[in-house]
Amino acid sequence: MNIHIIQHETYEAPGAYLNWAESRNYTISFSKVYENDALPNSVDLIDMLIIMGGPQSPNTTLEECPHFNAEAEISLMQKCIAAGKAVVGVCLGSQLIGEALGANFGHSPEKEIGVFPITLTENGIKDEKINHFGSVLNVGHWHNDMPGLTKESKVLAFSEGCPVQIVSYSNLVYGFQCHMELTAEVVSLLIESETDLLAKSKKHQFVQNPEEILSHDFSEMNEKLFQFLDKLVDDYKS
Fold it and tell me: Domain spans of the chain?
């Protein structure tokens, strides 16, 4: 398997996604756009495209962020989807997948930062790639927005603060608004990048303080993510 990861910022690191790919001895390539890495010219050598999060939104312009070209990333996703590749988007990545399929992103009712439970919908319980999550699972969150929905998409999970946490756009294309890839190392990077997190935790009901976030054990959600990715690979190969 050839895994290509688009990373928008140093602190929006792939975490458990990278750990999974390395543990399976897959071939891994990166477009670290914050270092001005180019996006792939062709999708021929990509089996799975993983698009990470970032502080940007799909409507962020090149003038606002010169290293983030939403239009180019969306075009790459469209090519991967058309070619039958597996595509997974995280946070901003999930919003970009929706945009690639003609669904505009939206603003989440609540800002969420920390570890909070998601609940699987009826469609989520039926989805064989994620039903091992169980009906409720504690996962990571770090967002203000959420992905748009197409007529064919299915919402698989929601949280108290956001109605769209996991979306299946097709059997090979999934959007995760939540961050199941978080590890203690990645969380430390995110905390360092977040301005006035302690003050925000006192203002927003779904924002935890740094100490509380770091106190969580991320291993269960990481392992659940590994199982999802293994199932996605099996479906891609079948």
Answer: 2-237
Tens-place pLDDT, residues 55-94: 999 999 999 999 999 999 999 999 999 999 999 999 999 9
Whole-angstrom distance, CA of residue 139 vs CA of residue 178: 7
Predicted pLDDT at 157:
98
Looking at 1.10.3210.10, 3.40.50.880, 3.40.640.10, 3.40.50.1970, the CATH number of the domain 2-237 comes to 3.40.50.880
* pTM for this entry: 0.97
Nearest 5°: phi and psi at 136? -135, 135
E strand spans, the chain: 2-7, 27-32, 48-51, 86-90, 106-120, 136-146, 154-159, 166-170, 173-176
